[in-house]
Specification:
It contains 5 helices and 5 strands, in the order ααβαββββαα. The protein is an alpha+beta fold and 181 residues long. The termini are far apart.
Length: 181
């Protein structure tokens, strides 16, 4: 029983230390106030990404654009998997009751899309960070409807009209962002 008590006490101490480290690291927040407005509030039909600027600017741009495309892909279709694990225990150590609890959560978003017709709509350097916004390109996107051979002409036209309205709205939102800069 004494071995179990010492083991339980050591476990409790380790869990307490882990909780302290987690709480203390949560206090050191990074300030994202300098990021572009379009990054914080992406335009519909666009995705955003960022990358740290080091020595090779084109590598940072490629990375930021790839992150933005992944963000756009997640907005179009995502499979989300999640798991919540909860551990609870009670016991006694040195004639004193104790209890411990640990909860962990894991979420995974998986996306796989072929993005036909995307373009880099905006980039910005802020400090050592490069931000990128990638949007669907209206003309290329509309052409994809024409290449679909399973849709009737009427269905293609309806899809193209709805897509055009959405792209017009996206262009209007992008123009508003440019005017604010």
């Amino acid at each position: 029983m004494k071995t179990f008590s010492k083991l339980a006490l050591v476990s409790l101490l380790l869990v307490s230390m882990a909780a302290f480290v987690a709480c203390s690291s949560a206090k050191s927040k990074v300030d994202f106030a300098g990021s572009p407005e379009w990054y914080n509030n992406p335009v519909k039909g666009c995705g955003v990404g960022s990358a740290k600027l080091r020595r090779i600017r084109s590598l940072a741009r490629d990375s930021a654009v790839a992150s933005a495309r992944a963000d756009l892909s997640r907005a179009l279709k995502t499979t989300t998997q999640g798991m919540l694990k909860k551990y609870m225990a009670e016991g006694e150590a040195d004639e004193k009751d104790f209890s411990e609890e640990l909860t962990t959560s894991v979420v995974r978003d998986v996306t796989e899309n072929t993005l036909v017709g995307t373009r880099v709509a905006a980039t910005a350097n802020v400090g050592q960070e490069l931000f990128a916004m990638v949007c669907l390109d209206p003309e290329t996107f509309a052409d994809a409807f024409d290449r679909m051979n399973r849709l009737s002409q009427k269905a293609r036209e309806a899809l193209k009209a709805r897509a055009k309205a959405e792209f017009d709205d996206m262009d209007e939102q992008l123009e508003k962002l440019r005017d604010r800069q």
